[in-house]
Amino acid sequence: MSSFHSIGDLSRSYQLRLGQHGLKTRLDRLTEELMTGVKTDIPRALAGDLSGLAHIESRMKILQTFQQNASEGQNRFTTMQSVLERMQSVVDELGPRLLSEPSIASDQDLRNRADNARQDFQSMLTALNTSSGGQYLFSGSKSDSAPIGDLTAMLTYLNAAVAGATTAAGIAGRIDAWFDAAPGSGGFADTFYQGDDSGDTRFLISPDRHINSKLTANSSELRDTLKGMAIITYASEAGAALSTDTLRELFSEAGARLVKATATLTSARSDLGQQQAAITQAQARNAAEITALSLARTNMVGADPYETTTALEETEARIQSLYALTARLSKLNLTDYLS
């Protein structure tokens, strides 16, 4: 004969299960809030007014974008500084030597020096094709392609530009004219330089500040260096075709340009340094505002760890009490109860 369950028995069983479900749901919620530090029901915590929170989160996303731009800019300018530093180390050492050696060195020593300078020039051209983050640093707004070619291509253009010149002054003048030719005149800017100086390379690093470096492989700040290196490299390429007197004079022509280049490279590096300082300042301001906004957001939606822990302990105690009551009524074990 089957046992009889009264309406009271069924109601009590339902109430126990309902209480069990409610406590387990509360336990899960409080556990998540304790782990994340954020209220699980944000609309309820803010009484349905999410406008303030939306404003804070939107502002934080904008600032994080600024920070990413600033970080990319800092990497970019740091790498550019490194390239210019390597160039200047060569120029500072080579320029004075090219001016002094013609009066004391032998013809063979001068030709060896020219050959060594040619290798330095190749390294410079390679350095100017440096890329960072998939962008070429000295290409201006056309950053998806290398700004200049290699030394072989350079010598082809130099030989064409110098053709017909027989004196050191004439050779150096032709090389100067090729480097300084206006766009459209068939000079360096048209034939060897592959970047673009006309586009906009600015990007925002804070709500009220942008950075922009117009320094490219075609910039006047670099052309004195390129001219001096090109002249001495041409001397190396011409070899025995140059008389000793012409070779010595080309050394002096190249040295004069490299000595002048020391000042222009220093100026270029100073401009980059100012941009780097602006980035550092912007990063500090952005970080301070992000911190303030994060605190404001936490005050709005954060779960107080002390209150959450207290509520969690209370919920666990109630679950234990409900289990004890249910076990006495149904003779359950804890494993079955929690399943």
UniProtKB/TrEMBL annotation:
<keyword id="KW-0975">Bacterial flagellum</keyword>
<dbReference type="InterPro" id="IPR001492">
    <property type="entry name" value="Flagellin"/>
</dbReference>
<comment type="similarity">
    <text>Belongs to the bacterial flagellin family.</text>
</comment>
<dbReference type="InterPro" id="IPR001029">
    <property type="entry name" value="Flagellin_N"/>
</dbReference>
<keyword id="KW-0282">Flagellum</keyword>
<dbReference type="GO" id="GO:0005576">
    <property type="term" value="C:extracellular region"/>
</dbReference>
<keyword id="KW-0969">Cilium</keyword>
<dbReference type="InterPro" id="IPR046358">
    <property type="entry name" value="Flagellin_C"/>
</dbReference>
<keyword id="KW-0964">Secreted</keyword>
<dbReference type="GO" id="GO:0005198">
    <property type="term" value="F:structural molecule activity"/>
</dbReference>
<dbReference type="Pfam" id="PF00669">
    <property type="entry name" value="Flagellin_N"/>
</dbReference>
<feature type="domain" description="Flagellin C-terminal">
    <location>
        <begin position="260"/>
        <end position="338"/>
    </location>
</feature>
<dbReference type="GO" id="GO:0009288">
    <property type="term" value="C:bacterial-type flagellum"/>
</dbReference>
<protein>
    <recommendedName>
        <fullName>Flagellin</fullName>
    </recommendedName>
</protein>
<keyword id="KW-0966">Cell projection</keyword>
<dbReference type="Pfam" id="PF00700">
    <property type="entry name" value="Flagellin_C"/>
</dbReference>
<comment type="function">
    <text>Flagellin is the subunit protein which polymerizes to form the filaments of bacterial flagella.</text>
</comment>
<feature type="domain" description="Flagellin N-terminal">
    <location>
        <begin position="26"/>
        <end position="142"/>
    </location>
</feature>
